[in-house]
Amino acid sequence: GGVALLYASRELDKLQTSNSDQLAGVEIIKNALK
């Protein structure tokens, strides 16, 4: 449930991206998890 989404959001903060498109995708997912 909600706790898993919080953990997923934290892991996304640690994710390294190669370019701005990947970063934009990560930001979209993080906003969806809020």
From TrEMBL:
Domain of life: Eukaryota
Protein name: Uncharacterized protein
